[in-house]
Amino acid sequence: MSVKYANAVAAVKAMENTLLTRSDIDQMISARTRAEAEAIASAKTSGNDSLEKVWEMLSSYAPDDRELRILLYRNDFHDLKAVLKATIANRDPSVYYISPANVSLEELSRAVSTKEFDILPAHLAEPAEEAYELLTRTLDGQLSDSLIDAAALKAMQDDAEKYGGEFMKSFAALTTVCADIKTAYRCSRNGKNAGFIETAVCGSREIDKLSLVRAAQTGTESLLSFLDTTPYGEAAALLRESPARFEKWCDDKIMELAETARLQAFGIEPLAAYYIAKEAELKNLRILGVCRECGSDRETIEERMRKLYV
pTM for this one? Predict the structure, then answer.
């Protein structure tokens, strides 16, 4: 912990008042029109309705945001995938670029177009070169994407160990194990071979990679039976019901972890927790919007809502 974050934490505590509550979401679900629902959200968020704005504020508050930047690694690697594919297909990558990110579109595009991958940050340079070589050699976009996704998770875990506290280490591990289970499940359903699964699964301190790969290679029921023997037996039960229920469980578990960080009086943890909370809020708004467009009933919408921070 560090008292140098005292002012930053105080600022974040004030920002928490702009997050949507369960009551706000209930009102939005009950709203008669989409415009009415959007008005409820706009009145609460006071214009702080984008992750870009939230990130700018958190970065300006934090005395040192190196640990905080780990939260953006998955965006960095998503953008790498976009630039690689767009460059090879001679398309504009800007339509696929997402932010906030640690690396600009211009920097990524230059690295890929010139093959000067060492100009990228350390967590991106080697995976970018490896994925570029794989994609240009095999033209297998799915395998390249899997390599990059696994590299993103590994970078999160590695740098959380180097620069992060216990919260960031736990966040990286939980994010990885949820992604690995999801990946292994999809691979088993689609009959992927051992080589593909080995590339796609990252591995974490939570579940042994080799055991997970072997179980996925054998088949879906073998995978779920293996998960039953781990601390993630609940995940297996949810996957037997539906992948959507498992994904909601993962999001809720991450929010529960964020809630523990929120209680810290000093340090970067409350800032990271607030960013995670804002991500979850925006996901809920997207889910709500899609459900309304599809004419889903209230019960269905409520089942799909993620756990809230406040």
Answer: 0.92
